[in-house]
Design a protein that fits this description.
The structure is a homodimer. The first copy, chain A, is an alpha/beta fold. Helices cover about 20% and strands about 30% of the residues of chain A. Chain A has seven helices and 17 strands. Chains A and B meet through helix 7, strand 12, strand 15 and strand 17 of A and helix 7, strand 10, strand 13 and strand 15 of B.
Amino acid sequence: MEAMRHSSTFLRPPADAAASSFYALVVLNQRLPRFAPVLWSHARLRVFADGGANRVYDGMPELFPEVDPMEIRHSYFRTKFGFGFLSYHGLISVLYVKNKATYYVSGGANLRWYKPDIIRGDMDSIRPEVKEFYINLGVPIDDLSNDQDTTDLHKCVAHICESMDELDKSNLCILVAGALGGRFDHEAGNINVLYKFSNIRIVLLSNDCLIQLLPKTHCHEIHIQSLAEGPHCGLVPIGAPSTSTTTTGLQWDLTDTGMSFGSLISTSNIVLAEKITVKSDTDLLWTISIKKGI
Amino acid sequence: MEAMRHASTFLRFPAPPDISSPSYALVVLNQRLPRFAPVLWSHAKLRVFADGGANRVYDGMPNLFPEIDPMEVRHRYKPDIIRGDMDSIRPEVKEFYVNMGVKVEDVSYDQDTTDLHKCVNYVCDSMDELAKSNLTEATYSSQFCILIAGALGGRFDHEAGNINVLYKFSNIRIILLSDDCLIQLLPKTHCHEIHIQSSVEGPHCGLVPIGAPSASTTTTGLQWDLIDTGMSFGGLISTSNIVREDRITVKSDTDLLWTISIKKDF
């Protein structure tokens, strides 16, 4: 059985070398995670799902309180302004330029702007002034309110998959910000997108944790980014019970153990090793906490 | 198949005593206190703080009554017990409740069950005693209902663990509550009638087969009713549905989670 390798490198500042993963970012209509800028810095494609536009419009300036909000929203000032993410011994430092002086940044920093490639969805949550702002920036708006059968996230994931050729799609990883919290039926619908697109790497993110699917078709190696995630973790058999799951690297490892709702599920577990392995007869959700200090 | 009746009367200020309403217990978990926590409190005969839930009431309840002295609010919202691992409750909060004579039960020796599971066990034992002394003839399952505040949000493994408590105690009515919505289990052993309290809940709702797929579910009263429809993760699950009628019925071959939004403005 082929092994699938996982690593939350999107929680760390981008390295100098070209990333092997092609990251896309979808922003949903929940509070923007505090580490949204680092996700943005990895993404080559950024999509706002309807009210996700409000969240970036309101929330991104709050992450940079000393900077004029409009300068963060616009890409117009990019030549005079920079936001850099530099890594010093693993700490994320945000550097920005005052007084519009040109700033030269060394060490592989990436400069990014908070204007999306597209806004897509039902358009029943995006505020009129926010929509107008992004239209004026030339952002395409895809109103799909005619399609009531799929969620906004599903529409965004479908768009990303259609936008990519097969070569890039094999390296594709879709990061979904604001995927958890709020209404539970929305959260369940977001989790269901992981199952419906089980051949695409999709990571659901909130301020507190991430969730990703570990398909039963592969055994899994999870390389823990211990500066950014852990130690709390879990494996959850959503949708169907597991007769046999085996793990290594956890405080409470499973050894050919059955899991199901109504019985044992692995929650409040702890990562002990830097490499976790998981093998199961059913699709599982892997979840790990995100450190407060990033 | 026997029908099970549901009504979120715990979201409305208490009406005169109604023999058909269950007795309520309240467990407060370690997430932000819902803004309607006082109305839940007013229904509960038993109130339990699960470890850091004590911090949430200590900090959060005074915020809901800004015109009243915080200490007076904290004295008013005094629990019957605080129970759990005791690794989240702040020392000054613990001391405050101990000084008020609240029993604090450290059950950290038990690493196999969550704080919520420990509190539900306690509530079941206590409500049994209360019911015996009341000499009611109600059946066990309709006798009481446990309301869990702060059950959703935060870490997903905690949320999944809380949902699992619904499945483990499937013969007890337990309602998970957050600011935005509630979740409850509809066991496959019964067909269900849900009486919508439209001044406080809805219209957004859903039915989710979390633990196992459903080969056949049938509903009435929803915008998108299911008619002998299969549901599963990877396929169809009922989310972003809308309640159209005051009475919803659900019948399924598998345990389902029912979820409905809570109105912002009550």
